[in-house]
Amino acid sequence: MARTVLFLCTGNYYRSRYAEELFNHLAPRAGLDWEATSHALAIERGKDNVGPMAWQTIDALTIDGISPLGASRMPAVCTHDALAASDMVVAVKEAEHRTLLAERFPGWEDRVTYWHVHDIDVAPPDVALGELKVLTEALVQRLAKV
């Protein structure tokens, strides 16, 4: 049975979806028995999120030759069950997500790996998704060495 990494962001529309799709593309090529999923910590804050996945995410994946398999899936809300079922949880920006985890899932805030990737309101997509690409590739490489 595959192990699972859960990527978290605020709306599960842009950053976490990119990490999920990229991870799921890279993991089998690295010989990993891992799969990724992603969820939102505050889906209600995504007032500008229209549809299942941000077009910037789809474009970035397509440029890298990745056909996003979950492009039609609507954003998913994080649950206790999703956290508990994951072997690893990564929140894409500590400054946003540590507090949300502490408020909504007390005790989980210290059990999560945090990255520091800004949302689209702070960093342009090429920068943010470029950082996520580097971090996700490094995660896959690290897991392949274990």
Encode the helix/strand succession as letters: EHEHHEHEH
The total count of strands amounts to 4
Major beta sheet summary: 4 strands, parallel
Q: How much helical structure, as a percent, in the residues?
A: 40-55%
Stretches with pLDDT under 50, minimum 5 residues: none
Shape: globular
Please report the number of helical segments: 5
Percentage beta strand: 5-15%
The termini sit apart by 17 Å
User: Spatial order of the strands in the main sheet?
Assistant: 2-1-3-4
Rg (CA only)? 14 Å
Mean pLDDT across the residues is 94
Structural class: alpha/beta
What does this structure look like?
The structure is a single chain. This protein has 146 residues and is an alpha/beta fold. The protein contains five helices and four strands; from the N terminus they run βαβααβαβα. It has helices at 15-29, 55-63, 80-85, 94-104, 125-145; strands at 3-9, 34-40, 88-91, 113-114. A four-stranded parallel β-sheet has the order 2-1-3-4. Helix 1 packs parallel to helix 5. The chain is globular and about 35 Å long. The two termini are 17 Å apart. The model has no long low-confidence stretch (mean pLDDT 94).
Secondary structure elements and their pairing?
Layout: E1 3-9, H1 15-29, E2 34-40, H2 55-63, H3 80-85, E3 88-91, H4 94-104, E4 113-114, H5 125-145
Parallel strand pairs: 1-2, 1-3, 3-4
Helix pairs in contact: 1-2, 1-5
